[in-house]
Prior knowledge:
This protein is α/β, with parallel strands linked by helices. The chain has helices spanning 2-24, 29-43, 46-54, 57-68, 86-101, 175-188, 210-221, 263-272, 279-294, 316-320, 359-378; strands spanning 108-117, 127-136, 146-153, 196-202, 225-232, 249-253, 299-303, 325-330, 343-345, 348-350, 387-388, 396-399, 408-417, 425-430, 434-437, 445-453, 465-466.
Amino acid sequence: MRSLLKTVAISLFTAAILLPLTIQTPPRGSVEAAAQRRTARARGNPEILKIVSEISARNIEATIRKLVSFGTRNTLSEQNNPNRGIGAARDWLYAEFQKAAAQSGGRMTVEKQMYEQAKAARVPEPTLVTNVVATLKGTQPESASRVYVVSGHYDSMCSSPTDAKCDAPGANDDASGTAAVLEMARVMAKYKFDATIVFMAVAGEEQSLLGATHFAEEAKKNNMDIEAMFTNDIVGNTLGGNGVRDRRSVRVFSEGVPSNETQQEATSRRSVGGENDSQSRQLARFIKEVSERYVPAMKVWMIYRRDRYGRGGDHIPFLERGYAAVRFTETNENYQHQHQNVRIEKGIQYGDLPQFVDFDYIANVARVNASALAVLASAPARPKNVTMPGGLANDTELKWEANKESDLAGYEIVWRDTTAATWTNSRAIGNVTTYTMKGMSKDNYFFGVRAIDKDGNRSPATYPRPAARNQPSPRPS
Ligand SMILES: [Zn+2]
């Protein structure tokens, strides 16, 4: 083991020394090609690197300017005017997603998912709410029903959520997220994935998450197996109201205790721990690990909260229905450019205008999303029914259900200190469904299991629950 580590260390060292030299004097073809292959492998799956490189800030800019040109996209605004209002935005988005679908060889389909929203707090009269939903079907039979959803909301608002007439450019909130999702659809439609990816632009967010709630509710009714949901909402501003310019980080909000936790699960969690290990938190860890590798320019800043302080977003209806979900938002927000009537007051420009949006940054956020989605949809499903017996033991035994994918290579155990934010250790254990960590007590570490395919794509980790037969009850010791 030691000599192997040494060899690795030496070759890394050699590579570090040789790298500047190769820039000055390019080596002969085969040597260069081999070096490039090594670098590519170290960075990851070449197809995913290609996806990342194809995402275009110029396309994102064009989408945002187009969405802003509709004047307002308030959910209560006009639905039949081709030039102004949410209906114009809806139809334009539908056509754009269809253009993306045309590149998919028939694997992507686009629909307008509509329903009539009854009168509600921010809905003065019954209103048609429409989500534009593009579904890129997975190609592996065992995985096609496994779904990953990425969304942005295309509706906007000015100072008042029920003002349907005011200009509400919504360049950042949330043309930025919508443009990121459309760009991902354009690029990823050309690639094949084992599992299914849904690219979605929803309406009614500002009316209290209406479109996302409708989609999540329908999904639940139809037993849709949504393994993860990302909402991109306010992902375009890089100069915060705090005066800080940060173009290199994005916040990923994830909840610790599941929104849909039952009383019984809460009791179990209090007994064995796990308030930091919900499936959404595992998803955030997964995004950080994967995306920082594929998009080294960006730091994924995990925030251990469901959303910003006391706030909400389109991931919440998914969380409430038991789906893992996270929210992407820029690091430093500027409230002069969110939910504001466009105006100049005491020399300050208010309003959510394109001039305050950083298109290159949004492209990087889209790359972070796309790389994580691509790995999720290429990797096996996360292991199911992972359990750990509750008895007294110095070793830790883990069990799980076998995955069904034909390209499954096996599993890894991951673990970390109980105070660590991310998984710090992993061990490949082959294609088995039980494993014992010798000499490592479950009292002292958190463990997880993840599945790996033959190309090395890893699923997010699953945190074990106590095995049913020995549900631990607190006992005196
Ligand atoms: Zn928003």
